[in-house]
Design brief:
Radius of gyration of chain B: 27 Å
Largest interface: A-B, 62 and 73 residues
Largest sheet of chain B: 7 strands, mixed
Shape of chain A: globular
Distance between the termini of chain A: 68 Å
Number of strands of chain A: 12
Strand order of the largest sheet of chain B: 11-10-12-13-15-14-21
Shape of chain B: globular
Structural class of chain A: alpha/beta
Strand order of the largest sheet of chain A: 2-1-3-4-8-7-12-9-11-10
Number of strands of chain B: 23
Oligomer: heterodimer
Distance between the termini of chain B: 42 Å
Chain lengths: ~350, ~625
């Protein structure tokens, strides 16, 4: 980490978005993570995605649990409210927050320890409930903040820094998310900004539960030979099957893909989600074939990245519950209190 | 020969049934009929942790004098479960009565000379009248209510009127139900000596009261108080609170235009998640609550510490049940007080509200939502199974349409523009409470990071000891503010204080007037105080100060309320005498009377003339 404060002045020629803001306006505090940590790249990608989408930062709520990954909301979107909750329980806090105000963007940042171990139950249930949010797991296969214990996403046989192999089967959170109802599931790599930023943009605009499993190497404890979550290993063993690009309406849609390989999905806000299939036999809109392909490639030790699954007509928890359009937190006595007359009828019913 | 008990509007009747046989609604109808005749009564369901097959009981204390605490001994037993005959016979007071189904003879070995046995061949009567096996089972219960109507002189129109109300919309069910009542009544009229020496008589004892359980009352309080997010996990005896909220909100909280809900109820995957959701919603500006019981409160500890330290509004109802671990899940106790007061690790303290009637469950639910936002901290309402799940006679609920919700210190966009030096945890008003902001308020100002880690007044992370300590001291100041805001204790003492007093809370209150009256007859005259909130207000300590000795009456083994008084008030433990009851049944006046009288007897030193020969 660095202790040099960031300069507050901007380069005058930094590109500005529709709100007239530069990328710098979306930054947060200086990171306290290790130099080279994958998580900082994920934060940078979130900053870029929000800037490019012209999302007003104060309309974003950032929530996290505990761990290295969960510290990162401090390092992006300094004008957003953030909530660093308790270990593994960000999903419930995010659920409550989302119930209170459905109008904000919700970004949840978690780690593999936070979501796959202590918080696996809450992770599963937020997926089921389809909370409208972008849920990112910075997945490094290790407990960084407590110095290098294996996490539950660490591959069997992958070794610790000291060469000790992991003896247990890994949990694939992306696979779980597909199985139990997520409507947008992607896997990416913190070192591949070209792929990650468009996926984040598509996830942020997705009006349902969007899950991103981002392999994000831990330079301190899990970046050695023998680790399957090192920069080198992930670069050498991953390939994308499908990608998603978000095209704002104002941009002309250029046709530069092979016919049949790209499909456009209209988004509720007027933008277009361009789905790019990189393999003919992979249909990211079919839960069953998506899982089948993932399992087959996992067995071969290949890391599948890109857009894994998309339900292009998603529903979210507010739709399921039939809540009103206005944020529940904004309602006052007039909308909420049935009043004294109704209370008299209640009294009468109990006499 | 024992003389049969003679009593009008002053007796205890107990129904012994098999769980899942439909007895609960018939027994409830019995109690409600007395209530509608203006007779004060207190029904108590004593049920097993089981859906079908185990023994279950329903006790009704009838008292024109208004003594509605539990009373020991049964005057009339309605013994409908052969499996528990032996225990049920044993519980009847000498001179009491036992009604049984005489289709099969009552075992001779269990008969008592000092009890009047009343046989009604219920199964046989049903057999001739109804052919549907399900109806045969259900109507057995209605038949004994019919027989009791004749034996005890319950007004017939009251009973049939209730059936008409109950089956409104399903009118074809009224006929067979009334017929079942008639079968019981006619048998009693034709073959039994009626009325019994114990009976009921219409009186004017309930006024405009309502008969309702505390869980429903609290749910309605949350509805009127503006709660919009409810998150919960099923656990006896709190489940019916969340269910009542959803049921009533579905009718009363719909957007008239779209028919959509102005509330969200989430059945969580566990209690950790339930309280997490409440905290998330509270952080984001919604009024939110959860309901749970002891095991759930144990699970919620970590999150309660977060809400205390990060200062987030949250409301929790703990409908207490008996025992450590799973304990006796269908019995009542006041044994979570310490767990709630100091929930979570580190230096934490929590605000508790202690209702003792359904009316207070309603009022305190509203109050808790206000206090949570005012104090930016969790507020726990401590009820118990007896208050939560049993119907109680209660003053009716009231609502002042001019009442406004207290949303506490929240800066909106205009407010942020005006404030020069805003810090989330700055104590600008001197009450220990900072001004908070909600996400999404202002494009440039007011964002901050909420965290369970230590931070400074501007919500910036810090590990500097003096700043941590300063923050903890501010929280202590907020605690002092809380003591001025929670409901005041209810004190009863004459113009001149008596030497001794009693302190109690919650469901230990109903038997107290009866116990104090009985003690007074023995020459023991006591002042009394019912505490209604924690932190204790100054009036609580002043009451103790005015008395040489104070009995602390509560339903747990360890004297938890007494411990809180000693810890928080720095009171000499010798002045606080524990009066404890913890068998899982509601407290009776007799237990209080006995323990206090024994204490005075033990304290009375023998006179010299008594020990010297």
């Amino acid at each position: 980490m660095t202790f040099v404060a960031k300069p507050k002045t901007h380069h005058p020629k930094l590109p500005r978005n529709e709100l007239g803001l530069t990328r710098r306006d979306y930054e947060g505090a200086v990171s306290t993570l290790c130099a080279g940590c994958g998580h900082d790249s994920v934060s940078a990608a979130i900053i870029q995605a929000c800037h490019e989408l012209s999302i007003p930062a104060h309309r974003v709520a950032k929530l996290s649990g505990i761990g290295c990954s969960s510290k990162t909301p401090t390092y992006f979107l300094g004008k957003s409210h953030g909530f660093n909750s308790v270990h593994g329980r960000m999903p419930s806090v995010a659920t409550g927050a989302n119930m209170a105000n459905r109008e904000l963007y919700y970004i949840g940042i978690s780690g593999d320890g936070d979501s796959a171990s202590i918080g696996l139950g809450q992770f599963a249930h937020i997926v089921r409930r389809r909370i409208n949010m972008t849920y990112v797991v910075d997945n490094n296969g290790t407990y960084g903040l407590t110095k290098g214990q294996f996490s539950a996403t660490n591959d069997k046989g992958s070794t610790s820094k000291k060469g000790v192999p992991n003896l247990y089967e890994p949990i694939d959170l992306a696979m779980m998310a597909i199985q139990i109802g997520a409507t947008f599931v992607a896997r990416s790599f913190s070192g591949d900004k070209e792929q990650l930023v468009p996926l984040l943009k598509a996830a942020l605009k997705h009006e349902g539960f969007a899950f991103l499993d981002v392999i994000s190497p831990c330079v301190a404890f899990n970046n050695h030979n023998g680790s399957t979550k090192s920069y080198e290993y992930v670069r050498g063993h991953s390939s994308a099957l499908a990608l998603a690009d978000l095209i704002p309406t104002r941009d002309a849609i250029e046709v530069d893909y092979a016919p049949g390989a790209a499909e456009d999905v209209a988004m509720p806000d007027g933008s277009t989600l361009r789905l790019r299939k990189l393999r003919d036999d992979y249909d990211p809109r079919n839960r069953v074939t998506a899982m089948d392909t993932l399992m087959r490639m996992n067995e071969k030790g290949e890391i599948v990245t890109g857009l894994l699954f998309l339900d292009d007509d998603p529903s979210d928890c507010h739709e399921i519950l039939g809540t009103v359009d206005e944020p529940l937190a904004s309602l006052g006595e007039a909308e909420l209190c049935p009043g004294s007359e109704r209370l008299e009828t209640i009294n009468a019913a109990f006499r | 020969m024992t003389v049969p008990i003679q009593a009008v509007n002053d007796f205890v009747i107990k129904f012994a049934n098999v769980n899942g046989s439909g007895s609960a609604s018939a027994n409830g109808m019995f109690a409600k009929a007395l209530f509608r005749m203006g007779i004060p009564c207190a029904p108590r369901n004593i049920f097993p942790s089981n859906i079908q097959g185990l023994p279950t009981w329903f006790e009704v204390r009838v008292s024109e004098a208004g003594h509605l605490g539990r009373r020991e001994g049964i005057d009339l037993m309605v013994a409908m479960n052969a499996e528990t005959y032996a225990d049920d016979v044993a519980e009847v007071r000498p001179g009491g009565f036992l009604l049984h189904d005489s289709t099969k003879p009552f075992p001779k070995a269990l008969r008592r000379d000092d009890v009047t046995f009343i046989g009604v061949p219920i199964a046989e009567l049903i057999l001739h009248e109804f052919s549907d096996p399900k109806q045969r089972q259900l109507f057995k219960n209605i038949v004994y209510v019919g027989a009791l109507a004749e034996l005890l002189q319950i007004e017939w129109d009251v009973l049939t009127g209730m059936l008409e109300e109950q089956f409104k919309g399903k009118e074809k069910l009224i006929g067979p139900n009334v017929r079942a009542l008639e079968i019981g009544r006619d048998y009693a009229r034709d073959y039994l000596e009626t009325p019994l020496p114990i009976r009921v008589r219409r009186c004017d004892g309930v006024g405009d009261s309502i008969l309702i359980d505390g869980n429903t009352a609290a749910a309605l309080g949350f509805l009127w108080g503006g709660a919009t997010v409810a998150a919960w996990y099923p656990i006896t005896p709190s489940t019916s609170l969340a269910e009542a909220f959803e049921q009533h909100a579905s009718k009363l909280r719909k957007d008239p235009g779209s028919d959509r809900h102005r509330f969200a109820v989430l059945q969580a995957e566990d209690e950790l998640s339930a309280i997490g959701m409440v905290i998330g919603a509270g952080w984001n500006g919604a009024r939110s609550f959860t309901a749970t019981s002891g095991p759930g409160l144990s699970l919620m500890q970590e999150f309660l510490g977060l809400a205390y330290f990060a200062e987030i509004p949250a409301v929790l109802v703990d409908v207490q049940r008996a025992g450590p671990s799973t304990g006796m899940p269908t019995r009542t106790q006041q044994s979570d007080l310490l767990l709630a007061a100091y929930a979570s690790h580190g230096d934490t303290k929590h605000v508790l509200l202690l209702p003792s009637t359904p009316k207070e469950c309603f009022d305190f639910a509203v109050e808790a939502l206000d206090l949570a936002e005012r104090l930016q901290t969790p507020i726990m309402i401590m009820t118990d199974l007896d208050l939560g799940m049993n119907d109680h006679i209660s003053p009716p609920f009231q609502w002042d349409d001019a009442r406004r919700y207290d949303r506490g210190k929240v800066l909106d966009a205009d407010g942020l523009e005006q404030v020069k030096d805003w810090g989330r945890y700055l104590d600008v008003d001197g009450d220990g409470i900072g001004w908070r902001t909600l996400p999404g308020t202002h494009p440039e100002k007011g964002s901050f990071f909420t965290r369970g880690t230590s931070r400074d007044e501007y919500a910036k992370y810090t590990e500097r000891g003096e700043i941590y300590q300063r923050n903890m001291e501010r929280l202590q100041k907020k605690w002092a503010t809380a003591a001025t805001l929670v409901p005041k204790a209810e004190i009863r003492e004459g113009a001149k204080s008596k030497p001794c007093g009693v302190i109690f809370y919650g469901t230990s209150a109903p038997p107290m007037p009866e116990a104090l009256a009985a003690l007074k007859q023995q020459g023991i005259d006591l002042d009394s105080m019912r505490v209604r909130g924690f932190p204790f207000g100054a009036e609580v300590y002043e009451f103790i100060e005015r008395h040489e000795e104070v009995f602390v009456i509560e339903q747990n083994r360890d004297g938890q309320l007494r411990s809180l008084l000693v810890i928080e008030g720095d009171i000499d433990p010798a002045r606080l005498v524990p009066v404890l009851h913890y068998d899982g049944m509601p407290l009776s006046a007799q237990v209080v009377e006995r323990q206090i009288a024994e204490h005075f007897a033990a304290m009375r030193k023998p006179r010299l003339s008594e020990v010297t020969p």
